[in-house]
Amino acid sequence: MTLQPIEVRPSAVEACAGSLRDAVLRGDFVEGARLPPERQLAQTLGVNRVTVRGALSRLVVEGLLSVRQGSGYVVQDFLASGGPELLPALVGHADRQGASTLVKDLLEVRRGLAQVVLTRLAGRRVKKAELAAIERAISAMEACAAGPLRDVAEADFAVLSAVVAATGSAAFRLTLNPIGQVLLTLPGLAAAMYRAPLENVAAWRVLAGWLAAPVPEGIPLILSALAERDEATVQQLKRKS
Amino acid sequence: MTLQPIEVRPSAVEACAGSLRDAVLRGDFVEGARLPPERQLAQTLGVNRVTVRGALSRLVVEGLLSVRQGSGYVVQDFLASGGPELLPALVGHADRQGASTLVKDLLEVRRGLAQVVLTRLAGRRVKKAELAAIERAISAMEACAAGPLRDVAEADFAVLSAVVAATGSAAFRLTLNPIGQVLLTLPGLAAAMYRAPLENVAAWRVLAGWLAAPVPEGIPLILSALAERDEATVQQLKRKS
DNA sequence: TTGACAAATTGGTCGGACCACCATACCAAT
DNA sequence: ATTGGTATGGTGGTCCGACCAATTTGTCAA
Prior knowledge:
The structure is a homodimer of 241-residue chains. Chain A has 241 residues and is mainly α. The first copy, chain A, has helices at 12-26, 38-45, 49-62, 78-81, 87-93, 96-121, 128-143, 149-165, 170-185, 189-193, 197-212, 219-240; strands at residues 65-68, 72-75. In chain A, strands 1-2 form a two-stranded antiparallel ribbon. Residues 1-5 of chain A have low confidence and may be disordered. The first copy, chain A, binds a DNA duplex (30 and 30 nucleotides) through residues 11-13, 37-39, 47-51, 53-54, 56, 67-73.
């Protein structure tokens, strides 16, 4: 009994949201154009109006649509108004080349944030409690290294999250969270990134060691290690799928 | 006739979402605890169940709650699962000191992303079309420098957005978008940041000039200028409110 | 004590109705 | 011909009541 991959049936509004999101990203509706009215969409999708309303409001939050009472839903330029949570859908619509580029760029963003975090941490004393939390997260990752990849990925993100938490900055954490969640949902990414989970654990241990005496000179080494791992991940991703 | 600040009445589900969000962030519900059922919340808030459902689903997307059919809504650790769009609400619940710290950190995140973007742009040739778009955005900002602050802030963000767009990376843009939107909604921030809009325009022009021949050596100067402006903004914010 | 079963609770969906806002076309006054 | 008001239909926003589906809880028998 290694694992039990439960499968959940997505809710109706989730299905509707996915369908509509795909349609928008596919370009079925011209940007700036108006979507069909809710009632018509409901009939087309064979679902109640309340359900499509839920889906549409979701897309509005995501930045794909805007809405005004009495007027209707208009397609937005999601690159100018959307959030990172759109990336999985974008990856789904891109070819192999485009998908790997998207992932590569997202990892670059993550490294950039990591650099800011490390820079901020440099020279400061990290509280013992937070250092202990990081150690705990690393150990947890080591513990599930042989288990399902999904758990490894989550544990890996938990370590990074703990490091970011050590900055004591809510803005940092809230900015990183969506990126981590996106990385978790990208299919095949975990398989490409955690081919040898224990190496990742070792890398984290290096970072934890640095945190004990965070001198700025140590940052480039850590960052280059991250870059190496990310590069290998992208290469593996290209080769695989 | 300088401007006409229209006022819109927020929708019912927005109001409900705000009320519930405040309650959660204020700690009225213990983390991990279950919220009252939808029907009860509807009665308490004096609104239909459909309406509170909309508000609750919104909070789920924001990472404040999780939900399971038959079980209920449970409060999440938003620092571990929330997105940057929570920051305005957080600022509203913080004291003066905490609020300015939140803003300062968010600006630090933005500078970090700017650094990554500039690093990526360095050494590459920026396409003429994108350079022109940046110039256009700067001119648009200059044009509305004397107008309402809200427009200045939007134009300023549009410039940064154009610069990021020059990277050709969707991940970069989608990561930055929420941060920009948050900065736009923070009350009083525009007043603190754009006390002399023309200076900001001049700074952008410097950046645009660098983009014509993006040598890595020019990056620190631009970044330090940004840091200076952000620092001044935070100081002004502390002093003011 | 344990396991299965039944009832109550709770979120998810449905159908229809009405209200508020908006877009358009039309008409009257200038 | 232009302007301003008005009427009509369309569209999103909210409400009501009902039922379905998943979960939790309580109960009882083995």
